[in-house]
Specification:
The chain is of the alpha+beta class. The chain has five helices and nine strands; from the N terminus they run βαββαββαββαββα. Strands 5, 6, 7, 8 and 9 form a five-stranded antiparallel sheet that branches.
Length: 182
């Protein structure tokens, strides 16, 4: 029986040094792994950054990506976020055509329904900010598409394991020493 193709969210804690992103993305590309989404940012410790990847594939692909990441010296830890109870979000900024009056009110109502926020108002356009799960963001895009999207920007996925899962993971990891110290 074959493993189904699915989306995996991986989180890599890496040393915050120049070239890490290029090294990791180059390694994944050279081995034929496609990154569906990528977000990188500093953590609570300025010496570390968190890279959140979404890769598509079966369990074998996930295991290969994980093994390759763990071989890189600047990678401190890799976890499969999607295998645990977690929260994930995308951020969207979208500029939509609108005229005065009815269209503007309709777009404001749609933004409210999706818990979005109008962050810029121009004479012929509105800019709306919204965050949420990927399917919510995609549904919002489809609802406003008929109005005329003039520009759209999305972040890569960000995700964190829920607190109750972390305490169980930390007690498991106490038995195993960390690979790298920072």
């Amino acid at each position: 029986m074959s493993n189904p193709i699915q989306r995996h969210v991986l989180s890599a804690l890496v040393q915050n040094v120049p070239g890490v992103l290029a090294h990791i993305s180059g390694m994944l590309a050279s081995r034929g792994f496609n990154i569906d989404s990528l977000a990188v940012g500093e953590t609570e410790d300025t010496r570390l950054s968190r890279m959140t990847f979404v890769v598509v594939g079966d369990d074998r692909v996930l295991e290969q990506v994980r093994k390759q990441l763990e071989k890189i010296v600047t990678v401190v830890r890799v976890i499969d976020v999607s295998a645990q109870d977690h929260v994930e979000r995308d951020l969207l900024l979208v500029r939509v055509k609108c005229s005065q009056g009815g269209t503007r009110a309709e777009l404001r109502e749609l933004a409210d329904i999706f818990r979005g926020k109008i962050v810029d108002v121009g004479p012929e356009e509105l800019m709306i900010e919204m965050s949420g799960r990927e399917n919510k963001v995609q549904a919002f895009i489809e609802r406003i598409r008929p109005y005329g999207i003039t520009e759209l920007v999305r972040t890569g996925r960000i995700a964190m394991v829920r607190s109750d899962c972390l305490s169980a993971e930390k007690s498991d990891s106490k038995a195993q020493p960390s690979r790298a110290t920072v």
